[in-house]
Design goal:
Blueprint: H1 4-10, H2 16-29, H3 31-43, H4 47-60, H5 66-75, H6 79-92, H7 98-107, H8 111-123, H9 127-133, H10 139-151, H11 158-162, H12 170-183, H13 186-192, H14 201-214, H15 217-226, H16 232-245, H17 251-260, H18 264-277, H19 283-292, H20 295-308
């Protein structure tokens, strides 16, 4: 087998396949490749060699690389090296990396590096570190922390994230509404109320979709109000959410939408949601839609009758 030092030099080759082949040989070498890879990560001028070294060290999973990867994450001038160092730290799995990953999420100049640090923190289930980041003034830091906490379904963060639902930043409000859906508790429903009246239709739409996870009669009633929203995407989200919630109180409103909404897509999904609720009271209205409505609505009404109720329309 080629010496590790020679394989490391090949990582700078202009030939992609030679680089990949060398990297995999170094990974297969395991322990014997760790020190040469660390040396390359810390001292090689070619950034391509450095990020390949970071990747290979992550694949080898040797904790000896921890300090070098942390330094690369926080100090390397190349964003690809920093990003791959975050991924490698996740692969090695040493929780001593958590504070450094949180620092990178908070302060790195590159969005991709911050996103990769967030993913690593999620893999470490570092909810405490993500919670602390919600106190940062930087809005992107808080956005990414909210996403991480939502991925972890961290209920401990409910009040802090719920407090972001009226932030001046639209994207942060949207992510907070998404997080509340990931939690899906009755308490989350209460925090969603301001989002249902948000000036941004994207936030309103996300909040309505989150109500599907909450479920229950209160969530149904909150969603019903959004079926009259000015924006068609919000109305569509409300219609599909009513089907997911599955409360019979939505039947009459969904029938109205199926026959009376100007947007055929929304009317069609109302027909589908009527089926999802699985109440036989919807059958006659669905049969009537098959006779009198436009083709997109007929298709969904027929699907509801056949797939949910086992009825072939005339």
């Amino acid at each position: 087998m080629e010496p590790a030092s020679e394989l490391v030099r090949t990582l700078s080759s202009d030939n992609f396949f030679d680089r990949q082949k060398a990297a995999w040989k170094l990974i297969e070498m395991g322990d014997g490749a760790v020190e040469p890879l660390i040396e390359a990560l810390e001292n090689e001028e070619n950034s391509q060699v450095r990020f390949k070294s970071a990747w290979a060290l992550g694949e080898i999973h040797d904790p000896r690389a921890l300090d070098a990867l942390i330094r690369a994450l926080l100090e390397d001038e190349d964003e690809s090296v920093r990003e791959w160092s975050a991924a490698a730290l996740e692969s090695i799995g040493d929780r001593n990396a958590v504070p450094k990953l949180a620092r990178a999420l908070k302060s790195d100049s590159n969005k991709g590096v911050r996103q990769r640090a967030t993913l690593a923190l999620v893999a470490f289930q570092a909810s405490k570190a993500l919670l602390e980041l919600l106190d940062e003034p930087d809005v992107m830091t808080r956005q990414m922390a909210v996403v991480g906490l939502g991925c972890l379904k961290c209920q401990e963060a409910l009040e802090k994230v719920g407090g972001q639902i009226e932030d001046e930043n639209t994207e942060l409000r949207r992510r907070a509404a998404w997080y509340l859906g990931e939690i899906g508790t009755s308490e989350a429903k209460d925090f969603l109320k301001p989002a249902l009246k948000d000036e941004s239709h994207v936030v309103r739409m996300t909040a309505v979709k989150s109500l599907a996870s909450v479920g229950g009669l209160d969530a149904c009633r909150m969603t019903l109000k959004l079926t009259e929203d000015d924006h068609p995407q919000v109305r569509l989200a409300a219609v599909t959410t009513l089907g997911e919630i599955g409360e019979t109180e939505a039947l009459s409103r969904l029938v109205e939408i199926m026959f009376g909404e100007d947007d055929d897509e929304i009317s069609a999904w109302a027909a589908w949601s009527l089926g999802e609720i699985r109440d036989p009271l919807a059958i006659n209205s669905l049969k009537e839609a098959c006779k009198s409505c436009s083709p997109p609505i007929v298709e969904k009404a027929r699907d509801s009758l056949v797939q949910i109720f086992g009825i072939e329309p005339e």
